[in-house]
Each structure stands twice: as C-alpha cells, then as structure tokens.
Amino acid sequence: MNLELKTIVVLALAAAPAAAQVKGLTGAGATFPYPIYSKWFDEYHKVKPELQINYQSIGSGGGIRQVTEKTVDFGATDGPMTTQQQFKVDGRILHVPTVLGAVVPAYNLKGVEDLKLSGPILADVYLGKITRWTDPAISQLNAAVKLPDAPITVVHRSDGSGTTYCFVDYLSKVSPEWKKKVGVNTAVNWPAGLGGKGNEGVAGLVKQTPNALGYVELIYAKQNDIAYASMLNKSGKFVKASIESVTAAAAGVAMPKDYRVSITDAAGEGAYPISTFTWLLVYEKNDEGKGAVLKDFLRWMLKDGQGMASALGYAPLPASVNAMVAKSIEAIK
After folding, report:
1. In Å, what is the CA distance from 19 to each residue of 52, 73, 312?
2. Is 61 helix (H, G, I), strand (E, B) or coil?
3. Which residues contact 100 (CB under 8 A, 6 or more apart)?
4. pLDDT, tens only, 209-251
5. Same-domain check for residues 179 and 42
6. Phi, psi torsion values for 86, nearest 5 degrees
7. pTM for this structure?
8. Cα(260)–Cα(316) distance, integer angstroms
9. 86 and 108 share one domain
10. What's the domain range around 59?
C-alpha cells in the first residue's frame, strides 16, 4: 500500500461516525412494558441489522439500581426515580415516556366473569382487613354475582417494581390508612399476601391458585387468560381497563418538563383509575457513539413504534406528549 493510499484509509477511518462502531446496547428494568419493548427491539433490529438491543426484564427497582451503578446503557421503570435517587447518579438522567398502560386486579374465581371492585376495598384486602370473598363490602358491589365463601389468597410483587409503585400510588390516594401505614414506593412492607417475582410471577401465582387476587399489567392478564376486575373510578363509574380508558386517564394531565407524573385516580367518567406512563431512563451524556444510537432509536420509537402499542394492550403517547418528548431527546449526547 503506497503512502497516498494509507493516508486516504486513515482519513476515511477518522471521518467514520462513532455511532457506526456501536454494535449493541444493553438495558434492564420494568417487566410492565417488556412485551412492547421486546417487539420494538426486534422490529428496530430489522431496520438496523447491525445493531442489537438486549433488554433484561428484572423489575423497575433493578432498572433504577443498574442505571445508578452504570452497568447498563439505559434503564426502564414504571415508577419515576425520586430526586434523591437521581442525585446518586453520576450525570443527569432523562425520563423518556414510551407508552401508557394499566395495572389490573387479576383474580381466579370459578364462574365469576364480571367482578367489580373499588380502591378502598383493594386497600383493605392488601391491609389484611378484608379476608374473604363474601365480605359485605365486596358482596354489596357484586349483588348479582355468586362469590365463593372462601379466604382471599392475596398475591403481590416480591421484587422492586414499577407496577407496584403504580398500584400503591393509587391505594395511597383512595385510602388514608394505606398512605399512613404502607405508603408509596417500588417496594413496600406488605401487611398480607404471597410474593411473586415480576408480572410473570404474580400472573402465574394467580392463575394456579383458586380464590387468588393479585395485580398485574393488563397484557399479562390477557396473555395468561386471567380475569380482571372493573374498578370504581373517581367519577363513580365502573371502568374496565382498556386502551381507551387508559388514554382517558391521561387526558388533561399537565405534563411536567421532566415527565415524572402520576395519572392514578384520574378524573373523568371514562378514566381507568390504575393507569400509568412507563419510562426509559437514559443518560444525558453517554459513551462515545451511544448517544447518537439512542437518539436514533427513540426517534423511531416515537414515529413508528407507537403504532405497535395498541395491539399489545398499551396506549400510545398522546400527540402533545409525543411532540414534547421528540424535542427533549435532542439533549442526549
């Protein structure tokens, strides 16, 4: 190779964009959005065959921990990081909303297809105050339903979980006793019940345990063919979780600049009360080349990925939020 050709090759390598050298990204966190994230990463790989995005569904608590420890390129959570948690991270973390979803009270009651529940009843069940399916509070809401005279087997998450965060955030809004005794976090000290790891674990326990009641993300109830209750919302209407009722819960919410917002117990006749955004946790400053790759994926997610959400039981981002996120991800370096 002559000197002139060597020089051309060196210059060409120097001019090659750093992003092209990135072959993969790793992420970890929430189980709640895993079905849609798995779909997105597979579809994006078809667009960018040279790039592989690997995601571990380990729970929101694990996602926050790994982002804090910088052992992943991005995290995922359904419970936004607290300000205190953000201070522990070396560098700024951006919360990027991706889709909306619902947490549903999933149950295993033979012959019962249309159970109705309220927030205060759920709180009392998980506080250990309501212990049987024939409790007067439940029976009053379900006069036309033959409920079994059996103990309620209560199932909750055993790991740090954004699904839990959404669920207990709602319970804290409708039950002063819950707020005082248990509170809101991705992991809490449960007064009653059995623990299952991940949405998968809770769904499995509910499905195999007669007379069980647990909480899971909507898609896990649908995929496992588990019945889930209608919930009495803030307007006094019984509402079943759906794309439309989750979208209604987000309507009219003032979105803060950092996107950390709760939409549980939302007003509106059609609003499903245990609804939430879910977020990717992205470093504002990334290793060389990875920021450009992340931005490219997020642009694709906002434009093409949103159309895949409904088929998996998630609500796409409202147009106004999508536009906000599109601008804010440009801060990623």
Report:
1. 13, 14, 31
2. helix
3. 246, 247, 249, 250, 263, 275, 276, 277, 278, 314, 315, 316, 317
4. 999 999 999 999 999 999 999 999 999 999 999 999 999 999 8
5. no
6. -65, -35
7. 0.87
8. 17
9. no
10. 3-99+276-331
